[in-house]
Each structure stands twice: as structure tokens, then as C-alpha cells.
Amino acid sequence: MTAPTTDHVQRPPVEVRFADELARLRAADDAPTPPGWALSLRAARAFIVGDERLGVTRKFVGDPSLIDRALVSLATSRGLLLVGDPGTAKSLLSELLAAAVSGDSTLTIQGGAATTEDQIKYSWNYALLVAEGPTERSLVPAPLLRGMAHGQVVRFEEITRCPLEVQDCLLSPLSDRVLAVPELPGDGGMVFAKEGFNIIATANTRDRGVNDMSSALKRRFNFETVFPIADFDTELSLVEAEAGTLLRRSGVTAPPRRDVLEVLVTAFRELRAGRTGRGDEMERLSSVMSTAEAVSVAHAVGLRGWFLRGDAGSAADLVSCLAGTAAKDSPDDLAKLRRYLEQHTSWRNGAQWRELRDARRELPGG
């Protein structure tokens, strides 16, 4: 399959979007490199946290020591499991790590209740299987087999959404570094992992799905927790940058208004924490009020303003867009959001906060 380009692709892989940065890092990389890796640990770290000298942008906002521990884990014989609340960029981090280590982040398994071992390990071309029997030509490799055969990192998203027996098919590849294909005769029946192979899995701590991992599988992973962004200014800058990128891809030429984004990020942080900026206790929403969700709302506000009125969007648009976020998990969240707008924003001054309060009547059921 031809590698995707950035033209007309909604979200190219990071190794495509940042191909120039990866090339510069490879050219300047003179540090020791683990066997099978495309970059050294230092260069891989720079790809994720940035390097001004080489013109490499920062792509993950978080503790740099987390990146160090994650890279060291991938250089060992243990897998890496990224856990945390939804919307904390676990999937983005796993994609960046895979691109830095292997130069390819597309060997991905999406976990779910319907995920089968065939989708993880391998399946068969049944027309060839009937005609020729089990041969390497009739074998259809899935991400795990391809990653082991080529020495690349495999990403397993939402691993705890898979049934336990499906999860445990990773035990042998992680411990013995071998995958058995019993249908194939001779040496073809055993696929031994090449240098560079490892697994990065992700799991939500807030919404674990129905299947926790077995103790045997947990022992084969190093766990790293990805926390929400603690600093307001950092979160605001991230939301502004990501929303601006999404808006440009959507054909919106007006950048998001920073004063509107300040109201948005403040509201998200307070609804997430259950406490206002002056210390008042309030009801937390059961919906996920993550940074990723804030970016999505900022994108929707910009689209609403641009395509409906020809402007960059306003605080009044926030209310309509927040309603869709708040109503995802529980209808009671809409009432909590309305009480927040009525009771916990009245002490704030500024045109955007007044506009936000006035627009609360647009909430469904109001």
C-alpha cells in the first residue's frame, strides 16, 4: 500500500506529517541506538518533546521524565502500557513513540468487544487455503505478526475492551518473543521477533471496559500513567494550537479567539475538578471534560461561527457546543452545566463571561 501523503487526508500518520523532522534527527543522530531502532533514545525523546536547535517541534505536553521512562521500557523485553483518564493523549503518545522507534506508527490494533485473535495475529486467504492448503502465500499477517517479523513497534489501543482470552494471546509474544503458526509446516510455523519489536498498549482508568487484564499479562508490561495537564497556560496554548490546525484543515481562515478559548478552558478545568477558580465546590460532570474534548469544542465553535456568520465564533457558541459534550453520559449533566453557568460564573467580569451566562437559555430543556 502506498504511504499516505498530507494531501486530502484528514489525519496523516505522524511519521508523514513530521517526515522532515525525523529526517533531520536521523542525520544528526550520533548517540548509541538500541538494536532495531530507527533513532537513539536521545533523538526519539527530542522528536516528542522538541529540539529548537534542529527545528523539531514539541508534540506532547507532559512530564519529560514520562517520555524517558517510556522509551527505556520499549528498549527492554517488557511491553509499555499507558493508562490514564480519557483525553490525556495516550494514543497520541503511543503513536509518537512508535514513529520514533520504528519509523512507522500504523501497525495498530483497535481493541473492542468484537476484536478477535485473527485481527491481532494472522488470518487466511480462504480461496488460497482451499486451493493450496496452509502456505505462507495464503497467510494474511495481522499487526502483531508483521511487527514481530519486521522488528517494529505494535500499538494496541484500548486493550481492556478486549475479552480476556483475546488479551492473553500476547503472553507468548511478550515473554518468549515468538508467535506460533501451527498450521504451517517446518520453520514457517514459528515467527521469532526481530530486534526492535515491542508492544505499546493503552487503557482508560476511568472507563476500563468490561475486561481487566490478567495478572500474567500485567507482569509483562511496564505501567505509565498519563495525567491531565496541570498548568492553565499550557493547556490554553495547546487547545489554541490544535484547534487552529483543525480549523485550517476545515477551510476556516479566521483563527480561534483567545478570549473565547480562555473561557472554554477555564470552564472545562472547573467542571473537571468540581471546584471554581475562587475555591467554591460544585458538581462534577460525569462526562469526560478532557483537553482533547476542549479541542473538539473549540473546533466546533470556530466552524459554527465561520460557516453560519462568517466570524471566528463567540462565547455564546460555546454553550451550544458544550451541550453536546455534557449530554454524552448522563442527562443530569445538562442540569449540572446549567447550574454552573447560573451560579458559578456570576462573580466573573468580562464580556465573554456575560455572553456565556446570557446564552445558557439555549441549552436543551431550558
UniProtKB/TrEMBL annotation:
Protein name: AAA family ATPase
Pfam families given in the database record: AAA_5
Residues in ATPase dynein-related AAA domain copies: 79-221
InterPro entries: ATPase_dyneun-rel_AAA, CbbQ/NirQ/NorQ/GpvN, P-loop_NTPase
Highest taxon of the lineage: Bacteria
Signal peptide start and end residues: none
Organism classification: Bacteria, Bacillati, Actinomycetota, Actinomycetes, Micromonosporales
